[in-house]
Structure formats: structure tokens, C-alpha cells
From TrEMBL:
Signal sequence, start to end: 1-20
Family matches, as Pfam families: PSP94
Native source species: Chrysolophus pictus (Golden pheasant)
Subcellular location: Secreted
Family: Belongs to the beta-microseminoprotein family.
Alphabetized UniProt keyword annotations: Disulfide bond, Secreted, Signal
Record carries keyword Signal: yes
Gene3D superfamilies: 2.20.25.590, Complement Module, domain 1
Gene Ontology CC: extracellular region
Protein name: Beta-microseminoprotein
InterPro entries linked: PSP94
Length: 115
């Protein structure tokens, strides 16, 4: 019973901490002859089963025999002074920066991140 409760506690904490945005694409078969070796993504790019990759729009994806799943790899700031500050997404770093509206060289304190 203690083991069960410990596992339940770990699961509840991990669900709370992980709020990544994800989606799933059902299998769209890539074939080599008669053999299905992977799936096509939304852009029509083929991916082999058990492969993993990062996209240019900051998603981490994987391909399985069921299809392709992708999740964001960045966290969004949700608890900061929105009157004084603004969040700006850096697509190269796949991360948000929170800076003062009047002076983007000054960072703002963020109290909570989601994702």
C-alpha cells in the first residue's frame, strides 16, 4: 500500500509539473516495398519507426508504429508583472524571455512557468 501511495504521489507531481502542449498524428505509412518502416509527418516528411527529432518550431517529436507524437520543448511564463513586462519568444533558443516593455534590455522576474 505504501508503494502504491508513493507511486500515486510521484504521478500527481509529474502531471502537475508537465503541462507541455502535445499532439498525435495517427500512422500515415512510409513503405519500403511491402514493409511499413515509418510514418509521414504533417509536412509530408518521412520518419522511421523509433526515430526522434526536433522541429524548427520548437517541438520534440517521435515516431512509433502507431504514428507521430510531438510536444513543445519550451515553457511559457504565466506569472509576471504584465503591466510592466512583456514575454518575447526566441525561436532560435526555443525559449521565452520576459523583459520590461519600456526597455527590452532589462529582464523581469517570473514567478511561474508552464510547459
Amino acid at each position: 500500500m505504501k508503494t502504491f501511495l508513493a507511486c500515486l504521489l510521484v504521478l500527481s507531481v509529474s502531471v502537475t509539473v508537465s503541462n507541455a502542449s502535445c499532439y498525435f498524428l495517427p500512422l500515415n505509412p512510409v513503405k519500403r516495398g511491402d514493409e511499413i518502416i515509418g510514418s509521414y509527418d504533417m509536412k509530408g516528411e518521412p520518419h522511421e519507426f523509433n526515430s526522434r527529432w526536433k522541429t524548427e518550431d520548437c517541438l520534440e517529436c517521435s515516431c512509433s508504429k502507431f504514428g507521430i507524437s510531438c510536444c513543445t520543448i519550451y515553457a511559457r511564463p504565466v506569472n509576471f508583472d504584465e503591466e510592466k513586462c512583456v514575454s518575447i519568444f526566441n525561436n532560435t533558443a526555443c525559449a521565452y524571455e520576459v523583459v520590461e516593455k519600456a526597455d527590452h534590455s532589462k529582464t523581469c522576474e517570473v514567478h511561474e512557468w508552464v510547459g
